[in-house]
TrEMBL record:
Alphabetized InterPro entries for the sequence: ARHD_Rieske_2Fe_2S, Cholesterol_7-desaturase, Rieske_2Fe-2S, Rieske_2Fe-2S_sf, VanA_C_cat
Pfam families the UniProt entry points to: Rieske, VanA_C
Domain Rieske: 7-108
Name of the protein in its database record: Vanillate O-demethylase monooxygenase subunit
Keywords: 2Fe-2S, Iron, Iron-sulfur, Metal-binding, Methyltransferase, Monooxygenase, Oxidoreductase, Transferase
Organism: Pigmentiphaga kullae
Any GO molecular function: methyltransferase activity
GO biological process, one term: methylation
Length: 349
């Protein structure tokens, strides 16, 4: 159910310091910390000795020291010291994971490390662009990550789940256009001639009917980048036009839980910290509503049903179904690829 050869968000940059941060990704326990040179290290959170979580230990001179018997491990996973003995067994090492830190996000690669350099994380450049201002947050879900993918690829639900913030009935009544370019599935919707829902009315000051649009761009396995905007249909109404992008960065934790990192990034009213906080609170409330729905759905489905939760397909399922097919294809490609050549023992380090 997982693509392992892919970049997933592990944390926001501000979360990782010289202290230890323990998280689980794709069923694998990982501990992250920042070294003195600013680089982030990510190791399997399990000591090579007696499997105590290394996150119970501490960092000393860039080495992670186990809190049980004091074995120390470098950022490459190799043991560098064992109290009471000089010889370090070759097997005294833990798995180290490739990391990329870009635009205030820390990405981790859980698959074959030899393949990590062949792809890049999805573009989140607007998180740090001087013309754009982010409002960001995190939500933990007790649900299969694919259900959240489905949720984001079918935004008709905002009319019924998010009526207090970003939704109104006009969204569900407006047609969608589904397309695919390579490994990206897109779902576009124009909502014309309806009043702005509360969130967008506040952002743009709109009082008259507007033209609103959103385009969901799904990047397998679990990133959705949604381009959003509103434009006045009457001269002089509000700001006239506003544009933003919403980053939905989902990392599976286990088969039954997910990390949900998000950011709403705007290119209007940039010099208003109060607006940045308003957006953060409003989007956090919106995602709390999604959390309730998706967790209820997850709890109601058996494991086989989660593979195909659509009991009766309707028009708005075309985006989620296309996204599911793309994800399944990518997973099958990964599973059918030749296994990497084993590293000779004399080169294993």
């Amino acid at each position: 159910m997982w693509m392992k050869n892919a970049w997933y968000v592990a944390a926001f940059s501000k979360e990782v310091h010289t202290n230890l941060l323990a998280r689980t990704f794709l069923g694998t326990r990982v501990v992250l910390y920042r070294q003195e040179d600013g680089q982030v290290a990510a190791l399997e959170d399990s000591c090579a000795h007696r499997r105590l979580p290394l996150s119970f230990g501490h960092v000393e001179n860039d080495r992670l020291v186990c809190g049980y018997h004091g074995m120390a491990f470098g950022a490459d996973g190799k043991c560098t010291g064992i109290p009471g003995q000089e010889r370090i067994p070759p097997a005294a090492r833990v798995r180290a994971f490739p990391i990329q830190e870009r635009h205030d996000l820390i990405w981790i690669w859980l698959g074959d490390p030899a393949l990590a350099g062949q792809s890049s994380p999805p573009d989140a450049g607007r998180m740090k662009h001087p013309d754009w201002v982010p409002s960001a947050g995190y939500c933990h879900l007790e649900a299969d990550y694919r259900l959240l993918n489905d949720n984001l690829l079918d935004l008709s639900h905002v009319a019924f789940v998010h009526g207090r913030t970003i939704g109104n009935t006009a969204v569900a009544q407006s047609p969608i256009k589904v397309s695919q370019q390579g490994n990206v599935v897109s779902v576009h919707r124009d909502v014309v001639g309806a009043h702005a829902p509360p969130f967008y009315a506040h952002l743009g000051g709109f009082r008259q009917p507007i033209h609103r649009w959103h385009t969901v761009n799904y990047h397998a396995p679990s990133t959705c980048i949604i381009e959003v905007g509103c434009e006045a249909t009457q001269p002089g109404d509000g700001l006239g036009r506003i544009e933003g992008v919403v980053m939905h960065l989902i990392t599976p934790e286990t088969e039954d839980s997910s990390h949900y990192f998000w950011a709403f990034i705007r290119r209007f009213r940039q010099d208003e910290p109060a607006l940045t906080e308003y957006i953060r609170q409003a989007i956090d409330a919106t995602h709390t509503e999604d959390k309730v729905v998706v967790e209820l759905q997850h709890a109601s489905l058996t494991a086989p049903q989660r593979e195909n939760p659509v009991n009766l397909a309707i028009v708005v399922d075309s985006g989620p179904l296309r996204g599911r097919r793309l994800l399944e294809e990518r997973i099958q490609q990964e599973q059918s690829a030749p296994a990497p050549e084993p590293v000779p023992a004399h080169l294993a380090g």
